[in-house]
Amino acid sequence: AKQAGKNTYHLFDTAQDTAINTQRKSIDNIRTAIQKQEFVLHFQPKVNMRTGEVTGFEALIRWHHPINGIIPPLEFLPIIEGHEVSLRLGEWVIKTALDQIIEWRKVGINLPISVNISAHQLQQDNFTSRLATILGDYSEVEPNCLELEILETSALQDTKQVSSTMSACQELGVKFAIDDFGTGYSSLTYLKRLPAYLIKIDQSFVRDMLEDTDDLAIVEGVVGLAKAFRRTVIAEGVETVAHGEALLKLGCELAQGYGIARPMASVEIPAWVKSWKADDAWLQHNKIN
Ligand code: C2E
Ligand code: MG
Ligand code: MG
Ligand code: MG
Fold first, then answer.
1. What is the DSSP string of 160-196?
2. Most buried by CB count within 10 Å: which residue of 94, 163, 218, 255?
3. Which GO terms describe its molecular function (predicted)?
4. What ipTM does this complex have?
5. Which bound ligand lies closest to the C-alpha atom of 243?
6. Is 182 in the pocket of ligand 1 (CB under 6 A)?
7. What b/e string do you get for 96-135 counting C-beta neighbours within 10 Å, with b at 16 or more?
8. For 13-44, what is each residue's pLDDT tens digit?
C-alpha cells in the first residue's frame, strides 16, 4: 500500500509538472504569436429581426496558426487566463476592434462593435485607466461605439468590484453587455447592481427553446426580466427562421446566430451588409411594447 501511495504521489507530481510546462509553453507560444500577428478578429453581425436592420458586430478572436490552422478561442484563452499575456491579447482585441470601426466607416458602415472581456481583464486594478488611454488614442471613435461583453459568471465573481468598474467605464461612454445570461444565478438583485444596457440570452436556451418547454420558459423569463429592468435583450444562437419567430413572439427582436450569419473575416462584412435581408416571416411581426 505504501508503495502504491508513493507511486500515486509521484504520478500526480509528474502530471502537475507536465500541466505547468504545457501552460508555460502555451504562454510562450501565444507571446510569439502576438508578435507574429497570427491573431485575427472575426465578426458576427447582430440584427433586428423585426426591422431588418444590422445593429452591430461582435468581435471573436481566432488564432491563425501556421501549422494547426484556425484555432478557436476556447482552445487557447482558458489556458492563458490570469496571465499577463492574456491582458495584452485583450488590449489587442480592443484596439483592433477600434481600428475596424474606423476602416468600416470609410466604406459607409458605421456600427458599434462589441468585444468580449475576461474576468481577469476586468478585475485588473487599472482596467478603467488603460481603457481611457486607448480611447484617448482613438479620439475619432466615440466611446459608445465600443461595447464590452462580460460573462454573467464573471460578473458574479465579485459583483461589487465588477459593478464599480463597469460604472467607471460607463462614465467614459463605453457600454456593457452581460454575456451568456442564464448560465449564472440570473438574480434580480445583482442585475439591479450591474449597469449593463444589454442582456445576451445564452445560446443553449435559445437552441432548445422550440423543443424544450423549460428552455422556452427561461428565454421568456429573461426577456421579461430585461423588460422589467429596462435593459435591451438579444438572443444568441439563432440558427433557424423558426427560432427567430419564437423570439419575436416573446418580444425579443435582436438576434445573433448562424441562421443570420456566421462570424466572418472583416473583408467579408461589407458585401454581407449590402446583401442581407431579414426573413419575410420576421418582417411581418409587429412591434411588441
Ligand atoms: P460568446 O461571446 O458567447 O460568443 C458566441 C460564440 O458562439 C462564438 O463562438 C460564436 O461563433 C458562436 N455562435 C454564434 N452563433 C452561433 C449559433 O447560431 N450556433 C452555435 N452553435 N454557435 C454560435 P467562438 O467564436 O468560438 O467563441 C467562443 C467564446 O470564446 C465566446 O463566447 C467568448 O466567450 C470567448 N471569446 C471569443 N473571442 C474572445 C476575445 O476576444 N476575448 C475573450 N476574453 N473571450 C473571447
Ligand atoms: Mg460574447
Ligand atoms: Mg455568449
Ligand atoms: Mg459563450
1. HHHHHHHHHHHHHT-EEEEEEETSS---HHHHHHS--
2. 255
3. catalytic activity
4. 0.98
5. 1
6. no
7. bbbebbeebeeeebebbbbbbbbbbbbbeeebbebbbebb
8. 567 777 788 888 889 999 999 999 999 999 99
